[in-house]
Design a protein that fits this description.
The protein has 418 residues and is an all-alpha fold. 79% of the residues lie in helices and 0% in strands. The chain contains 18 helices and no strands. The longest helix has 36 residues. The protein is globular, with a radius of gyration of 21 Å.
């Protein structure tokens, strides 16, 4: 009987992970349909790159603020109703774009869309934290780490096909339908798979995956505060590069190498394909580098090297090499993003509320994302992208310097405590 009950509990936790993955992956149809089609949108509406980039910047701005707000409040939400409502409302906003709302209003719709969608990440991570035991938590880190990449891949893949047939706006209608179906799956499925085993097990707060076990929540120590502050800075830098690359690579390939829109978008699929392995890379390195700040610093150092290669070869007839470098940078930045938004909040659940930490750090991620869309489009100054990649190099080297400073700080502090 015990074995049967355990199997039933394991099945519930597995389905819970799948349901959370589905909800956060499918919402990307309501988020990146615009980004993936920024080139045909510029052509159809006759707007500049800076004007077109303002739309996702409005989204990222609202999303970043919303992450902090919902991180603070998500523990009070009815998760079944709120997540379903978010998916339906985002679907309605995308339908408005499909039916041809004037361009000047799209940025305001995307502002609302950003705040609405910002509910999801802290709420979903808190749901996982409350319902998974230690073993399934490790699985959740890997699976949820693929949501951004998988969602982006699906949106950009579908967009490449639709752009080729010159019917790109269908992505907004298709995305709306997908999100409504996902909302129904969440609404009718969530209560059936709740276990609430992540809150307490045998009378104790569950341990983190590193094996440490604590009774009750610990107060935020000074060392943990410094680590979270550094991760917040890293979140800005990583997402400036990650989302800037994802948004503008199709335009870069078109302007620099004369590739058609459909082929540029298709080649850009390399970025989320490689990014899917970001979670695996982060978890693999975390086996040897337990500190989240140092782990991220190593990944930033590697990104600096590949950014330097792009600076050297951009404009030369080596578009395949440049595209590959974009792919590796995407992999590394997705890996950093996974450390910040998934691994740290879930693994530190015995020290700080998962939803709060996830919302706070993800909010800083979208500070970088906000700058990436409008700022990088404006910085490109017409057809020149050199200044953008110089900025990327400065950001990655700056992150390495911060990481070294943090390493020295921890060594000195630990030495004083002995």
């Amino acid at each position: 009987m015990m074995t049967e009950e355990k199997n039933r509990d394991n099945k519930k936790q597995t389905v819970m992970i799948i349901l959370c993955w589905l909800a956060y992956t499918m919402v990307y149809f309501g988020r990146y349909g615009y980004n993936a089609n920024i080139n045909p949108i510029i052509g159809e509406y006759g707007v500049t790159k800076a004007e077109a980039g303002l739309v996702p910047s409005f989204f990222f701005f609202a999303y970043g603020i919303g992450q902090v707000v919902h991180g603070l409040l998500c523990r009070h939400y009815n998760k079944r109703i709120v997540v379903s409502a978010v998916l339906v409302l985002s679907a309605a906003i995308n339908l408005a774009v499909f039916f041809g709302i004037p361009f000047e209003y799209i940025k305001f719709l995307w502002l609302i869309n950003g705040f609405i969608q910002s509910v999801l990440w802290p709420t979903i991570l808190l749901t996982l934290s409350e319902n998974l035991d230690k073993a399934h938590l490790k699985t959740a880190v890997l699976i949820m780490g693929t949501t951004t990449c998988a969602g982006t891949l699906l949106v950009y893949g579908a967009s490449a096909v639709l752009v080729h047939f010159e019917v790109y706006k269908i992505i907004f209608a298709a995305g709306a339908g997908i999100m409504v179906l996902t909302a129904a799956a969440w609404f009718f499925g969530l209560d059936r798979v709740k276990t609430e085993r992540g809150v307490e097990e045998d009378g104790k707060t569950l341990s983190s995956p590193d094996g440490t076990e604590n009774v009750g929540k610990k107060k935020l120590t000074f060392s943990l505060f410094i680590a979270v502050a550094v991760l917040a800075v890293f979140a800005i830098l990583a997402n400036l590069i990650k989302d800037g690359t994802q948004t503008w690579v199709p335009t870069i390939l078109k302007e620099t190498y004369g590739l058609p829109d459909s082929l540029s978008i298709l080649l850009t699929l390399l970025l989320p394909v490689l990014g899917i392995f970001g979670a695996l890379l982060a978890v693999a390195i975390n086996r040897f580098v337990k500190d989240f700040v140092l782990l991220s610093s190593v990944l930033f150092a590697a990104t600096a090297a590949f950014t330097a290669l792009i600076i050297i070869f951009l404009g030369l007839p080596y578009w395949a090499l440049v595209t590959l470098c974009f792919g590796v940078i995407s992999l590394l930045m997705h890996s950093v993003n996974n450390v910040i938004t998934s691994i740290a909040p879930l693994y530190l659940r015995d020290k700080i509320n998962t939803g709060l930490l996830a919302g706070l750090l993800n909010g800083f991620c979208y500070v970088g994302s906000t700058v990436s869309s409008y700022g990088l489009g404006a910085l490109s100054s017409g057809d020149s992208w050199n200044a953008v990649f110089d900025l990327f190099l400065y950001c990655t080297l700056g992150a390495v310097v911060i990481g070294v400073g943090y390493f020295v700080f921890t060594k000195v502090k630990n030495g004083k405590n002995r």
